[in-house]
Amino acid sequence: MAATVEIDEENGKDSSPALTHNIGNSNMGSADAANLNPIASPIAPGANSFEKWQLLHVVDMGTSSKIENIRVWRSGSLGANAIHLTNASISDYRGEAKYRTPTDDTSPYAIFPMPTSIPGSANLGIGGSLAGSLTKSGSSDFLVHQIQTTEAALAGSTTVMNYSYDETA
């Protein structure tokens, strides 16, 4: 039996965060909320979305002995006047980000372009390292990401978040 894995999201003040397990979407918007409705909380042209603070969470290892090599990317286009930034990076990974209250100011963590195809190797760590692994239930480092727009941005872009990892039986 394969491992049971979900994507979780942390929201709220860093002094009293709320963790939502097994989120239904990674929609970005003008509110700090899991399972966000982007129509109710649109990103205004020239503004940023709130940061998303998400985790790949191994709920149950099943018959697997190790989870490693986590890769995240998005497919689909945002258009010319928006960028999707992240802390996930193959070459400049800065280690584990400690949760802090999400902001719609320019993120100090989400500074690298979100890959638009599967990375060749891990770009999200475990325990602060891209070479990290899980051998029991637990979570990856936080994936921090944010959409930033210019005044010329248009509404309506849709992309898909993708996650990949290696699972050893």
Q: What characteristics describe this protein?
A:
169 residues; 34% strand; three-stranded antiparallel β-sheet; mainly beta; seven-stranded antiparallel β-sheet
Count of helix runs:
0
User: Helical percent range?
Assistant: under 10%
The gyration radius over C-alpha positions equals 16 Å
Mean pLDDT: 96
What ranges have pLDDT less than 50 throughout 5 or more consecutive residues? none
Largest sheet, strands/sense/barrel? 7 strands, antiparallel
Give me the strand/helix succession. Answer: EEEEEEEEEE
Describe this entry's structure for a reader.
- The chain has 169 residues and is mostly beta strands.
- It contains no helices and ten strands.
- The protein has strands at residues 4-11, 18-20, 52-60, 66-75, 82-86, 112-113, 133-134, 138-139, 143-149, 160-168.
- The strands form two sheets. Strands 1, 2, 3, 5, 6, 8 and 9 form a seven-stranded antiparallel beta sheet that branches. A three-stranded antiparallel beta sheet has the order 7-4-10, with no helix packed on it.
